[in-house]
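Reading a protein record of the kind used here takes only a little practice. The record below shows the convention in full:
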Amino acid sequence: MPLLLVFKWSFDYPTDTLLVGQVLKLNCPSTLVSRESKVSGSKGHHSLVLEHKSFSLYLTSNNSRDSLVYYKSDIVLGKDKTMVNLSFYSEPETEKGYAFEVGLRYSMNDSITSGDFVLSRPKYNSSYFMLRLDLDYNLRVHTYYEHVDWEAWEITFS
């Protein structure tokens, strides 16, 4: 009898990938973690973490109990402000939608302050994007363009 593996995936609990509209929330699911390998679903050594004043990329090593920061966002916040969520977004740059802007949008605890980190501006109209923390510690935007004969997924940010 063959072994059947069932994976539960939830829009509210991302793993190594964010789809457009997915949100990392402070004190909730606030981390993306890379996979251990291409064939394993186990947690890897790299993570993107939403923190109170920024979001950061970390490396966790088997040789050290402390995680090492290799990227920290450079958002300047007031003393009383906290970042409460970080979402992956895609919006048309113009009214006609010839090109899209893809990035990360953050919101603060005052419900007024927010900002964008533009990651990519693909040269064509596409409606499918995903942000993935890959095995090699890179954060990448993958864009799907259905009007091509081969390799419809393209890396448009790394």
Q: What stands out?
A: The mean pLDDT is 82. The two ends are 43 Å apart (CA to CA). The CA atoms of residues 118 and 130 lie 14 Å apart.
